[in-house]
Amino acid sequence: MIRAVITGRLHGDPQSRTGQSGKAFATAGIWVDAEAEQRIWCSAIAFGTTADRLLQLKAGDALALSGRLTPKVFAKDGAEPRVSLDIVVDEVAAVRRKPRQRSDVGPEGMKAPQAMGCEALR
């Protein structure tokens, strides 16, 4: 078993599914950046609360996933073989910038006087 942490961007919104046993899970496709400006396709599956966290993300979101990884090789219609990854996810982390508070930012990115501890100008 390979344990791994991967980072990349979601290709499409994650999908909610239900197995034959009635248990809910989520699937997602992720493009993982590799060396030399190449990308590797990764198929992800998550269960329980991990699936719930994955389903909160949208297409294009940057994320980090950890879990059991299985590397695969495929060749489509005689093309050159390529690597892909399958991961059974046990942790999901969204990679987002911390949102700025608009009340602290004035025109041209300058802090508003109240945010600097000054009284409002009259």
Question: Can you characterise this structure?
Answer:
This protein is mainly β. It has one domain (2-116): Nucleic acid-binding proteins (OB fold (Dihydrolipoamide Acetyltransferase, E2P), Beta Barrel), CATH 2.40.50.140. Helix content is 7%, strand content 48%. It has one helix and six strands. Strands 1-3-4-6-5 form a five-stranded mixed β-barrel. The protein starts with a strand and ends in a 28-residue tail after the last strand.
Taking all Cα atoms into account, the compactness measure Rg is 21 Å
**Total helix count?**
1
Q: What composes the largest sheet?
A: 5 strands, mixed, barrel
| Full CATH superfamily name | Nucleic acid-binding proteins
> Structural class, from secondary structure content?
mainly beta
Q: Would you list the SSEs in sequence order as H and E?
A: EEEEHEE
Task: Report the count of strand segments.
Answer: 6
Order of neighbouring strands in the sheet with most strands: 1-3-4-6-5
User: Which of globular, elongated, flat, extended, rod-shaped describes the shape?
Assistant: globular
Low-confidence runs of at least 5 consecutive residues: 114-122
CATH fold title: OB fold (Dihydrolipoamide Acetyltransferase, E2P)
Distance between the termini: 67 Å
Beta-strand percent range:
over 45%
